[in-house]
Amino acid sequence: MTDRPLRADARGNQQRLLTVAAAAFARDGTQTSLKAVAKATGVGVGTLYRHFPTREALVEAVYEHEVTVLCDAAAELLRTLGPADALQTWMERFVDFMAAKHGMADLLRPVLLSEADRLHTRARLRAAIATLLDAGAAAGAIRPGVDANDVLMALGGVTMIAGEEGQRALATRLITLLLHGVRAPGPTS
Predict the structure, then answer these.
(1) CA–CA gap between residue 130 and residue 27 (Å, rounded)
(2) Residue 153's CB: how many other CB atoms inside 10 A?
(3) Which residues of 5-38 are buried (b: 16+ CB within 10 A; e: fewer)?
(4) In whole angstroms, what is the distance from residue 173 CA to residue 20 CA?
(5) Which residues does 51 contact at the CB level (< 8 Å), separation at least 6?
(6) Could you read off the pLDDT tens digit of each residue along the chain, which spans 189 residues?
(7) Residue 142: strand pairing partners
């Protein structure tokens, strides 16, 4: 069997399946019905299984897709928002990403057992944060020298605390607090 490029409609189906599945995993966890994912996407379950032959394959693809979307969002946000607002929006998206990841945790463990996989994902996330921090520092909105890894670790803590409490609003309040720590002092500070 050859790996031919997907037709445009098949690519569209695959992207919609990944988006719908991510939301379903975030909402329902590993109990997510794949038949319901297919139905919500507007395709038959056979189409889902043609793209993702197992639940684990779908979980892995959703995870990779969500990491890519999140990392790509850094540059996209900088094109439309000021650097501080772009950083805040990206942090909010990170919290949502972690919520989806939490819903897939049981199925992700066997898929992402490799330390190399985890380190690669962490490096991609760190690079996205560095892009936002560097743009913010260049614009004078973010203190220069803020370490992207420190911000990533702080965000990880925010998502753990907010997840434990089951309060998405708590994550937003903690992100606001974190942003106050990285913003450049203003003229009135």
Answers:
(1) 30
(2) 13
(3) eeeeeeeebbeebbbbbbbbbbeeeeebebeebb
(4) 28
(5) 10, 13, 14, 17, 61
(6) 445 565 666 677 888 999 999 888 878 877 788 999 999 999 999 989 988 998 888 888 888 898 999 999 999 999 999 999 999 999 999 988 887 677 666 666 666 667 788 889 899 999 999 999 999 999 999 999 999 999 999 998 888 887 765 678 888 999 999 999 999 887 533
(7) 183
Two structure tokens written together for 20? 């719908």
CA distances from 179 to 5, 85, 107, 127, 147 (A): 42, 10, 33, 18, 13
Count of all residues that appear for the chain in the document:
189
Q: Judging by beta carbons within 10 Å of its beta carbon (0-12, 13-18, 19+), is residue 145 exposed, middle or buried?
A: exposed
With tokens 């189906």, the residue in question is: 13
Amino acid letter for position 4: R
Q: Using the Cα atoms of residue 42, residue 45, residue 51 and residue 57 in order, give the sign of their dihedral.
A: positive
| pTM strictly above 0.90 | no
Residue 2's Cβ-count burial label (10 Å; 0-12, 13-18, 19+) is exposed
The DSSP letter of residue 184 is P
**What torsion do the CA atoms of 146, 150, 151, 155 make, to the nearest 10 degrees?**
-170
